[in-house]
Design brief:
This protein is mostly helical. The chain contains 5 helices and 2 strands; from the N terminus they run αααββαα. It has helices spanning about 5-15, 20, 35-40, 60-65, 75-95; strands at about 45-50, 50-55. It is globular and about 40 Å long.
Length: about 100
């Protein structure tokens, strides 16, 4: 789980200050919390190629769903939400390339 302390430590490890990383807080609607938790947990599961990230590794999703306590009945909806977040992240990652 990302906490203010872990974010601060990570920023410092890369030579950033907390001010460099400052941004207004982002509210997350309760209906989206499972998708956000899964997306955060998938942070190290990007598939990459010569052009950079191509998408998330869906093969690990069942384990991530279980580890983040997403009810099985919600998996299809959370997967749909995850794909929207993945698409937006890919657009951002490939800007200026």
């Amino acid at each position: 789980m990302i906490t203010p302390e872990t974010l601060s430590n990570a920023a410092a490890a890369w030579g950033f200050t907390e001010e460099d990383m400052a941004a207004p807080p982002v509210g997350i609607w309760p209906d989206n919390m499972d998708a956000v938790k899964v997306f955060a947990a998938m942070g190290t599961q990007w598939r990459t190629g010569m052009g950079g990230a191509t998408g998330l590794d869906y093969g690990v999703l069942p384990s991530v769903f279980r580890l983040t306590a997403v009810p099985r009945a919600d998996w299809p909806d959370v997967f749909d939400d995850l794909r929207v977040m993945e698409g937006a992240a890919l657009v951002e990652m490939h800007k200026d390339t």
